[in-house]
Amino acid sequence: MTAAAGTSRDLASLVGTVLDGTYRLDQLIGEGGMGAVFRGRHVIMMRDVAIKVLHPDFNRDPELVRRFDREAQSAARLDHPNCIHVSAYGTTEDGMRYLVMQLLEGVELADLLTEPTAPKRVVEWSIQILRGLEHAHGQGVIHRDLKPQNVFLTRDQHGNQLLKLVDFGIAKLVGSDAGDPLTRAGMVFGTPQYMSPEQALGMEIDPRADLYAVGILMFQMLTGRLPFNHEDAIALIRMQVSTETPQLPDNVPQELAAIVYRLLSKQREQRFPDARTVRAALERYRSNMSHKSRGDTSDPLLDIGGAATTDTASRPLPEALRPRQIDFVESVLQTDRWSRRTWFKALIAGCVVLALASAGLIYWLLFTGPPAPAGGAPPAAESPAEAAPSKAGETAGATGGPGPSAMSQTSGPSELELAAIDDLIKQGKLDEAQTQIDALLERHPGHSQLVWRDARQLAKRATMHESAVRRYGEVLKKSPDLERDLGFIDEVDALLRKRPYTDAAIALAIDLGAAGVPILVHYINDAKPWATWAQRRQIRDALPADAAAQVDLVLNRRRDLEQYAEAPDPCAAALPALQAIQAEPLADYIPALKAAQPPAVPAGAPANPACDQAAALLATVRTAYAGRFPEAFAPVKPVKKKPAKKTVKKKRK
């Protein structure tokens, strides 16, 4: 391949060239921001392939090169009918990267989602998507960008529909991501409409993030629309984190709707544990539906555009959807009908449950003490040993002893009390909520759940912003694990993005860890000059290295120039700002440059050579900018005032 062709900006001119003497580019079939996809030919094996190339101009961009390499590394691990197959990857002598893939004939799933899809077809497509994810996750690959544009519909050698997962450009490779900026916590990658809450917040993800995307896809296929969508990306992310999933239409079978809702759980612990479990649930649902169809022998893989009947089943949820371990579910529900063995297993399970319940009742009667005397009479005097709470009893309660109600009497408010407060806050009855919170705090001083609700009701009050911020900070210090609670993070995020931004707000965002990085970036890039030099320095020092690319350098250099007098050492603070402004002349710096005063040594302080250096550099930069932007530095011409007209008073006759 000639150097001229390799460096040409017109990718179409590459048609006809041969990469590394093996792959001929025959036809440009797709072009994007990073490069293009060609229909190609293996000139030795005489086989058609698809060849993806990175645009030569982007070979100097380390992040895009890493993303292109990531797609090759991810796809190379995969060998499954429902995943795109990559056969070769390399770099030409001219430095152009290319990826050789299986040539697919068909359409993207996105082209078929213009209207609701029949539930039967949704199940078939979803099972294939989950098979591909099951294989990818087993190979340590998390897709992270599952969406209709990355699911391709083609046909296998028998003419049946075949779905393939494509574009693993931002996939996460489990176990090999140390130091990789594409996989660090705090960085957000993917498409917001299909992001899981934890992915949208920049938290560490696992395969369950892909399962959330499957839930979005199934909802979109069943309804013809997205469950969450907004023009503002920040608002959309907030919807993914906290907005309840909309109801599916009534024509969607109850069992199928339950699977979708569970996939879309905000807390990943409440979703299915893995792709295999979801696939098993869908296959079991499909099997049940095939029995109900009374001998329907039609091909389950429907033709694209073909008509399909809509299932309207409304029976109770199958056992597979209940929150039990998959091993138990599979051992009991291997068939659709109850066999003698199944009845026997169910009988044994019932006996075990009854025995455990009896044991718990006996334990409660023997070890929880006598009931309180009637009429409010004081109990008999106890010895100090009896009056002290039992450590053994607490441990037993945590591992299957007294139930939650018994524990709540000694460790904190009950669930009913907390739910009552939550209802009052939702209804806007903040004074009533605060009264109940204060009363419970007297009984349970400093309890984190009560302090959290106190912070929540304060956040609802327009004049209590600062108090709410401090209260949320207290909650986080009492329960550091809340930095991984999506509900808590969403509340704090919404509060901290409201003005005023204070020292307490900055401190709370820092304490949130990775979840607070987007808030800190929002603060440091705010166009309004509310932050002092010290506040901005605190924020920049708290940001991780991989968040530096999100900082608006031009804005912050201008702020540095405007605020260096506030720094503990103004001369040392002025030098790097002036050096950066000198190295990259931009008109944005002109107002601050014209208003800047030469840094001076405070009165009584010893001489500081840095001050002389900064003053000289300021003069040099101003001179250079005056030559580059003469109109901005031209002297302002004084405006001549017109002489006032003399008023002549007329004499009265």
From TrEMBL:
Positions contributing to ATP binding: 52
Top-level taxonomic group: Bacteria
Annotated GO MF terms: kinase activity
InterPro entries: Kinase-like_dom_sf (IPR011009), Prot_kinase_dom (IPR000719), Protein_kinase_ATP_BS (IPR017441), Ser/Thr_kinase_AS (IPR008271), TPR-like_helical_dom_sf (IPR011990)
Keywords: ATP-binding, Kinase, Membrane, Nucleotide-binding, Transferase, Transmembrane, Transmembrane helix
Protein kinase domain mapped to chain residues: 23-286
UniProt name for this protein: Serine/threonine-protein kinase
